[in-house]
Amino acid sequence: MATRRAPSAPLPVTYADVEAAAMRIAGSVVRTPTLHSKTLSDMTGADVWIKFENLQFTAAYKERGALNTLLQLDDAARAKGVIAASAGNHAQGLAYHGNRLGIPVTIVMPRLTPTVKVMQTEGHGATVILHGETYDAAYAHARTLEAERDLTFVHPFDDPRIIAGQGTVALEMLADAPAIDTLVVPIGGGGLISGVSTVARAADHPIEIVGVQAELYPSMYNSFTGNHLPCGGDTLAEGIAVKQPGTITADVVAALVDDIVLVSERRLEESVSLLLQIEKTVAEGAGAAGLAALMEYPDRFRGRTVGIVICGGNIDTRLLANVLLRDLARSGRLARLRIRLQDRPGALFQVARIFNDTAVNILELSHQRIFTNLPAKGLSLDVECETRDKAHLDRLLTALRADNYEVSLVELA
């Protein structure tokens, strides 16, 4: 755990700024609920309170900072319009509220941005420009257009107005659950945790503030701890996959945040699945990061009254399906078995009989006779099956081996 560093100058966002932002955006964003989760509390050993920011109209907290910024533009800036570089929730929040306020919005996105995100942003009335292969290229082009067209650039996190807007999340959380003594907050560029920590430090009791980043993108963690871990790779938490944190936000985090932890992709997947199964709510990977931290470090949070923020719920439905199925496989409720058979009549029937006797449902079969290192009269049979739980799966494996079948479990990463 790093030691908080005293700022060399006054921080750019105050509690009063967040209060002003709350009054400014009131009635135009959803005051999302903060609810207690008995089941997750029992699972983690902490007293868990969840802020459901995935219930915003655009399914993410980013609306708050975007709206707070738009409402502070003068008439001339409003007439000319704003521009941003984003392929995610910031784009949609800015587009939605810009359209509602009659402010032209231009969003620059990398060319490889999924079509659904482009369509969603255009659906909120924004003009989308596809440029470059990376976010950095899109960002550079947006700054060029800002100067050429005399537009106002709205940064996704490194702006005091954005930070103040995001801080309204904590105002609502602590009003609804005043006993919270620990806040666990996802970090990408740092806008949300900067706003949240500004509010928490003004509370009438000590509140520990813990940031969460995906292991693959520990950018703020590096800044906070002085480490130099690499950033890159395909993470489920794409909403917090930021290679370079903000300058303003890094200063706020250094001054106000107590600790930053890293979570694995497996924990992120598990947490997305748990939130859907237990809370009946859809969280994107970044939105599940707070719960992932509680699952990854149970001793760290046991006995604490913890507030976590589901910061967004924008996840591709096919990706969500994959996450859920992978979680079923890890829990033993779905399995793929590889069984060695002799290529002769009745071999498949005998195996199927064991599945029937143990009441295991066969979902899919796949024979492999050619691309195998088995003898010519042997074959490999892959069986995808459904069981009640891991103990049920173990009983099936025991029964197969008792009948002298060579069987192995095809494991997930």
Automatic annotation (TrEMBL):
Cofactor(s) the record lists: pyridoxal 5'-phosphate
Record keywords, A-Z: Lyase, Pyridoxal phosphate
Organism: Sphingomonas donggukensis
SUPFAM superfamilies: Tryptophan synthase beta subunit-like PLP-dependent enzymes (SSF53686)
Reactions this protein catalyses: L-serine = pyruvate + NH4(+)
Protein name (database record): Threonine ammonia-lyase
Family, similarity comment: Belongs to the serine/threonine dehydratase family.
Segments forming domain ACT: 336-413
E.C. code: 4.3.1.19
GO molecular function: threonine deaminase activity
Taxonomic path: Bacteria, Pseudomonadati, Pseudomonadota, Alphaproteobacteria, Sphingomonadales
One family name in Pfam for this protein: PALP
Taxonomic superkingdom: Bacteria
Listed InterPro entries: ACT_dom (IPR002912), ACT_ThrD-II-like (IPR044561), Ser/Thr_Dehydratase (IPR050147), Thr_deHydtase_catblc (IPR005789), TrpB-like_PALP (IPR001926), TrpB-like_PALP_sf (IPR036052)
Lyase as UniProt keyword: yes
